[in-house]
Structures
1.
Amino acid sequence: MMREEFLLIADLNSVLSDFRSSLWYAQGRDAIARGQRFSHKDRVATTLPELDEIFSGYLVPLLETMQRDGYVQRPGTDLPEAMIGRDGTLIKTAHGTHRLASAKVCGVTQGFPVKVVGVHRIWLDSLPDKNPDQIKSALKQIEAAYQ
């Protein structure tokens, strides 16, 4: 089953030049019609012109840029987060899911940085030597597996 973020971004990407026909826009339009707000990150819309600005000024250019340039980490922005699972696999946290979905939808296959915010104790215990150099080397191996 695909996450809602991925489905909404994939749908928006398929109709970029007519973003108002996207499912995501429809969700925002319906929320505003009910007197609620639409928000994405720090952007909030309570009117249709504000909703248009979120899409035309942020979401559509984000996808267009990612299609053209791949994933580009902007200076001063936070990194998407991940953890290392018990078997050494990378597990994405909830932080950065829209960026990851956008990268997947746009066909970005490399260059998607993440900040490792935790490691499973079993993975850590499986390392023969737990000094910083060994941990760094093991993390580099995980990174290489996802290139």
2.
Amino acid sequence: MNAVEIEEAVSELAEAPFDPEVFPFAFLEAFGNKSTTIKKLKSKRSSTNKSDLDGLLQRNNIHLKVCTEGEVTDTLTALRESPATTKHKAKFNDEVLGRIYGGRRFKNDTERLEKLFDLYTKMTA
């Protein structure tokens, strides 16, 4: 997928009704992950999901966890400090958020949260 296709897919995802069970998988699909990859991550028997936080961890890629309002900072901290994040080399958590919402990496957590809150406010207005 090229950058335009990814932007379109992420925009569609942002406009769709939010379903916390579906969102992490839809997020990965928006970035071009194949259906077989998503199926393996969803599988109850032989899942490739290695999250230790009841989230979604795609090895060598990203560790995601849906959280409620007010838990964002704690959840980001838990993801960053998770032994599974380190063990399975999930490296794109901060970079992905920064590039999606700001076109670049955020300078710090405050800047990230301000941007996410601003986008949320616009989406729900």
3.
Amino acid sequence: MKKVVFMALIALFTLSFTLEAQNNRRENRQNAPSGMRWSPKERADNMAKELGLTAEQKAKVEALFKQQDEKRAEEIAKQRDNKEGVEKDRDKRREEMQASREKTMAENDAALEKIIGKEKMEKWKQHRAELQKERRDSNRPERRGSR
């Protein structure tokens, strides 16, 4: 009887440590809400906090983010409908997607700069670059073992 209880406890602890290790990455995301993607309101709140935006700027930024999300959803739906074309020439499609993404980012940044101004936009770009660097560094294989 003692052996069965002891083995059950060992199995329970092993399972709990395994599950904790798997959930560790999601919980370590800096300033991330519980979901995988931030809503336009959450993104606008974060930007307002980082840059000290006025209530009017925050409202305009939130509306812009909603518009961008709707446009992105339409593009994703279009891409999903065109799955057959994607399978045929993958490299060409990847280049097109990258060019489209860069164009969209430039348009989004220009619209955002009109709302928040040049100085705050530079500060936001710097903040965004720092976050991207942190993400890249945290995903390197040689750093994964040290966690």
4.
Amino acid sequence: MYQIIIENKLSSYENVHDKLSGNCHLKLHLSEKGQVNNIQIESGDGQICHRINDVIDEIGEFPMPLQPEVIEKLQMIRLTVRL
């Protein structure tokens, strides 16, 4: 779900897919309310990872479920975003 949010935001930028291709592996650390606490780039194309980092900063807050046990599992997410 979070990967789709990021990819949709990326694709909303004009010609982003024409300019960039590759992938980025990252860890996303969220608060209990879904606010981005930390973005940790693990590997991937530097230009793509930089752009994804910017997009995540713009998103700022991701939707979180109501169940505390599910929230706890979603506070650290590993993602691979491919363009």
